[in-house]
Amino acid sequence: MNTAVGKNSYGKSDVSFLLVNDSRAGSEVRDISAEVRFEGEFDSVFSRGDNSALLPTRSMVNTVYALAQQNMPDEIETFAVILAERFLLACPAAMVVQIKLTETPWTRLAGKNGPSPHCFAAAGSERYTATVHAVRGLEPSITSGLTGLRLLVASCSALTGYLRDVNTNMPDETLPRSIIYCFSIDWTHRDPPEIYHDSRKIVRTSLLESFCDHTSSSGQHTMFVIASAALGACPALTQLRIICDTPSLEVVDLLPSRQNESRRLHAYSMSPYSKLKVTLSAE
Q1: pTM beyond 0.70, yes or no
Q2: Bigger pLDDT: 47 vs 169
Q3: How far apart are CA 219 and CA 278, in angstroms?
Q4: 200 contact partners, CB below 8 Å, separation of at least 6
């Protein structure tokens, strides 16, 4: 039986590093994780065990470390482009290189005598992301984003008027209703901006402001409202995608009578959870 090698890729994930830049004024830190993926003319590696076209994944790791130590730019989008271009040069068989960078922000701590020059605390669950898709001979596409944005609406939401079938056993959820949203958002620019972080700041601010001003009819409704607000606030964007995980919150009431109508206790579980996705384009 004849066999053919189909679409394939290889690379390295979770290439993490902490870059510390010391100066007389104190330390600056960058906490970044990289994912590298190659696609290309690697059929013979699979079919004949011919490794002459293969750049080892350990070389990918060393390249990420070396370029970060040599000249780490301020923005992860710029660093992702640098990595993609370097890998296309290093591996002629690679037709596509994809780089995804995730940065964990750290906040400088303050002691009794003011801001510490050397001590930091993790900022929370949020991470900054940048993905570069580089096809040999073409300009790379760049996507910016953030992930791990956890938002809670404690009361101002509802879910009514939905389709029912024989397995629908829950009542309409009217106000007040509590929901936790775990958002991942990414977006593309019309043209590469001078400072990518400016767009990230605008997107994040508009998401939070519109979330606060919104009365939700569903998770989908909320996603559309806040994503539309972000696109409107940042005209440089052409497209924005938002992914949302919502854990299960079940009201628990073990009191024999309603002793305090203003208190609600929710059992909280990430399994199972709802996953919603939507992509909006600027017109």
Answers
A1: yes
A2: 47
A3: 11
A4: 128, 144, 146
